[in-house]
Automatic annotation (TrEMBL):
SUPFAM superfamilies: FMN-dependent nitroreductase-like. This is NADPH-dependent oxidoreductase. InterPro entries: Flavin_OxRdtase_Frp, Nitroreductase, Nitroreductase-like. GO terms for molecular function: oxidoreductase activity. Residues 20-119 form the Nitroreductase domain. Keywords: Flavoprotein, FMN, Oxidoreductase. Belongs to the flavin oxidoreductase frp family. The lineage of its organism: Bacteria, Bacillati, Bacillota, Bacilli, Bacillales.
Amino acid sequence: MQAYSIIGITDSVLRERLAALTGGQRHVREAPVFLVWCADLSRFSDAVQLHGGELTTSTEYFLVATVDAALAAQNAAVAAEAQGLGIVYIGGIRNDMRAVSELLELPPLVYPVFGMCIGVPDEQPDSRPRLPRAAIYSENRYSAEGRLEQLATYDEEYRSYIRSRAGGGRDTTWTQEMKDRVAYPSRKITELLREQGFHFED
Ligand SMILES: Cc1cc2nc3c(=O)[nH]c(=O)nc-3n(C[C@H](O)[C@H](O)[C@H](O)COP(=O)(O)O)c2cc1C
């Protein structure tokens, strides 16, 4: 379905405004390339209409478009990194999705999933440790066996990584970071998505 579109922000005034809307993120303003990755069912809808039909959106189609945008973006990320470039995903583009949608003149059935800064990295940090394989992979059935031990092991690895990466200034673990996250309310996006024509029904 290729249910995604990419908007490259080349206009510096627009870039400033987007940077402000993402909470004043400097890299959004300064990165050589800034892309907005959109989930896009409008092309799908036009194709259906061309043949006399009408698209009724659904939770499934919302998911398809979001997954398409994410897959395309991650392929771009891998391609950029393979050429020695660096990227930063910008979920901050959803802080004020209504303003971003107006600014970019997004039509119905399109919403911004995330932004992406692309540039030349000026640091080469060690790779952030990931959850152990046993925590995310199981065979033939779902398994949460050994979870607490896995989290404890990962927390220690994560703590020492964060300590060294932040120059010793921060002392936290992955589970603590997850706990800190829920102290902030999650972004409110459902109403705007409905306004944009996405329906969460089957
Ligand atoms: C969906 C998504 C949204 C993100 N949003 C932001 C963001 O708005 N601002 C930011 O600085 N980093 C954001 N990040 C994090 C960065 O892209 C990057 O993954 C993070 O800085 C970790 O980098 P590291 O792997 O080099 O440690 C986001 C990551 C993801 C996956």
